[in-house]
Amino acid sequence: MTRFDGVQALVFDVFGTVVDWREGVARDAAPVLAGLGRRDIDPRAFADAWRRRYQPAMEECRSGRRPFTRLDVLHRENLDGVLRDHGIDPATLGEAALDDLNRAWHRLDPWPEAVAGLTRLKRRFVIAPLSNGNIALMTNMAKRAGIPWDAILGAEVAQAYKPQPEAYLRTAEILGLRPEQVCLVAAHNGDLKAARACGLATAFVHRPTEHGPEQATDLAPSEAWDVVARDFQDLAHRLGC
User: Fold this and answer.
1) What is the pLDDT of residue 2?
2) E strands within the chain?
3) Phi and psi for 173 in degrees, rounded to 5?
4) Which residues, 6 or more positions from 68, have their beta carbon under 8 angstroms from its beta carbon?
5) Cβ(182)–Cβ(7) under 8 Å?
6) pLDDT digits 0-9 by tens, 153-186
């Protein structure tokens, strides 16, 4: 645990690590699809298809081909694309319904132990999201779900999408801390690898059903991360909270 002697803040990946995006998006998409007479579309498959557009959309910003654009805007553009992929004209829904469905990402539920685990971790550490989600999205999610963040940080604050180094380094700077005083908690090995390259401590948390029962990625730590935990309660125990 010596790597954690100087750690003062835990920053968290959110989609998949703190909240179950797949079930939340599918829950909100199901009645919309049914209302369109498209019961042939599996809401979970629809959520997966929407999520597949996530990284390519952010890469447009990371590459410099597009200025930094907050995730709510990217999600909304991606929603239009997913609907068209399924043979649905977005105009059929109307702007109000499209905007409401887009806010499904604001209404995601935490994993069952997440809030209790975060509450324990907060006793010892500053806790904040280091998410690609924008400020309004993270704030609304936290308010609805009772997620006890000390601050709302992440891509919009840093003006950089993970895994760009600026996303990690600017977050530490905003907290007034050196990189080694900050630990990224994530269920994704790639995120942790990028954080470690920037000097942050790392904690891997297992989320083996983020992508559903047949998930094939991030089922185990790919490197010797500083801490490996089953969930947030286990992480709190391992960090003495």
Assistant:
1) 55
2) 9-12, 126-131, 153-154, 182-186, 201-205, 227-229
3) -60, -40
4) 61, 155, 159, 160, 161
5) yes
6) 999 999 999 999 999 999 999 999 999 999 999 9
Element (H, E) at 87: none
Tell me how far apart the alpha carbons of residues 71 and 65 are, in angstroms, rounded to a whole number.
16
Residue with tokens 């942790």: 192
pLDDT at 5: 82
Q: Is the dihedral angle over the CA atoms 224, 225, 230, 235 positive or is it negative? A: positive
- CA–CA distance, 71 with 24 (Å, rounded to integer): 17
Determine contact, residues 114/3, Cβ cutoff 8 Å.
Answer: no
The answer to whether 218 and 207 have CB atoms below 8 angstroms apart is yes
Instruction: Assess contact for 43 and 161: CB atoms under 8 A.
Output: no
End-to-end CA distance of the chain: 13
Tokens linked to 84: 């068209």
Residues of the chain with pLDDT under 70: 1-2
Query: How is 166-226 classified by DSSP, letter by letter?
Result: HHHHHHHHHTT--GGGEEEEES-HHHHHHHHHTT-EEEEE--TTTT-TT--SSSS-SS--S
Q: Which residue has the tokens 């500083």?
A: 226
Which residue segments constitute the domains of the chain, with CATH numbers given? 2-20+108-238 (3.40.50.1000), 21-106 (1.10.150.240)
